[in-house]
Design a protein that fits this description.
alpha/beta; seven-stranded mixed sheet; 225 residues; DNA-binding; homodimer; two-stranded antiparallel sheet
Chain lengths: 225, 225
DNA sequence: GAATTATCGAGAAATATTTCTCCTTTCCGC
DNA sequence: GCGGAAAGGAGAAATATTTCTCGATAATTC
């Protein structure tokens, strides 16, 4: 039996979880406009989804709506944010202060979404000691000690792909529980460690594929007419 | 009408397409190590996937393997790259030269993956005229004209989320066919325009959710023992 | 040269996810 | 209050995706 990276125990459907943040954007917009309640039909229409799908997703968070009324906006926002754990922020370490690492360190929005990058590390001595968006870049040697001392659960990998596995090993050894992997490298980690891949290449592949299909469809229509 | 046309009309399963780039990483590693053939079993083992799944994904690209041997590495790489359209690069425009936009402009790897960002635009006059990774930042006014003149199909949106819809409208009006959307804003576009969302927030949500589940599972096990 | 074994291919089965259908609830106008 | 319309809830149906099973094939070993 091949070792599975994902523990397929009881957890929420991942596609649903991924949609939740987009609901939040719309809901906060509603709140800003002074709306008190919102129906899943409205949400679905705005996001071009099926209303039932939205209802199912929202039900995951434990909220119940009222027929003919909808969901109370404030409660719904709170419910989703609680479900996603965005209320109590988790601290994370980032490894690899290149272009992307710097960009991530600059996203102040993460903090509103439950993630605080508290320290950055790099193997390049030239980068160590510099300051990026208010955080000093630390040497890799300090990583293990600090992970333990600060009870860090999340590691963010933004190093060149060849170094990714090595960094992952170091993070796991230090006691990290989840890795946000921005390289395309397929990381090998012990069971129980969560790896979420955020590399852009798969998304680019999907874009290419869909664009190709769209252009072909358009071409065909043009020839039929 | 050739059968290939029909097969492209029914677009490939997106999850499969997203996995293809990860196969490529492994395959190129194999090639570098001097391997000539590789079996889907090996690929599957390395990526912690089911062998049959890998076989089905590879079959999408039209390659046929040999029993007891596997797939010829070079041919397989070529087959996947052709399928993904990584051989003939498409030109793209990027709008929004903030942290992320700059980071994307700095990724030279995109070119090996069929994407060349040929120009960058920004609404901020302070940024217009500056140079980022060798490309001059142009004013938004020039966008429409250049999209048409250069036959650009792909637009990349890396602006603040509030400006995203407006930029998308401008891109669509200019004649763009696909949008790579790095904001969490749900874009409204006419039918036939492809929108691929690459915002990190859904991935972060998935990470949080899975980490939470993993920690709970671990806790549960600990209490059982 | 035959047996053995690893691998691919195809289609069936299983699972996950999304959509549909019907029913209940609640508000609004009368 | 009462009936109708609109909205959400629950579970079934449909669809998409993944996994399983079995048969065929080709290299390796004896």
């Amino acid at each position: 039996m091949p070792a599975t990276l994902e523990s397929t125990l009881v957890s929420a459907p991942l596609p649903s979880v991924r949609r939740l943040p987009r609901y939040l954007v719309f809901l906060k917009e509603c709140r800003n406009l002074g709306r008190v309640v919102v129906s899943c039909t409205h949400i679905a229409e705005y996001l071009a989804l099926d209303p039932t799908l939205v209802r199912k997703d929202l039900a995951l968070t434990g909220i119940v709506g009222k027929p003919r009324i909808g969901y109370p906006v404030d409660e719904l926002i709170a419910s989703i944010e609680t479900f996603l754990g965005w209320n109590n922020t988790s601290d994370a370490f980032l490894v690899g202060v290149g272009h992307l690492g710097k960009a991530l360190l600059g996203f102040r929005e993460f903090e509103a979404r439950g993630l605080r990058i508290v320290a950055a590390f790099d193997a390049d001595p030239a980068r160590v000691g510099t300051s990026v968006h208010g955080r000093e870049v630390l040497p890799m040697e300090k990583l293990a000690n600090l992970v333990e001392r600060m009870h860090i659960h999340i590691g963010i990998i933004t190093v060149p792909r060849d170094a990714a596995q090595q960094v992952a090993d170091a993070l796991v050894k230090a006691g990290i529980r989840a890795i946000w992997n921005f390289t395309i490298t397929s990381l090998h980690v012990p069971e129980g460690i969560v790896v979420e891949n955020a590399d852009l290449t798969p998304s680019l592949a999907a874009l290419s594929s869909r664009l190709k299909a769209a252009l072909e469809t358009a071409e065909e229509r043009r020839m039929l007419v």
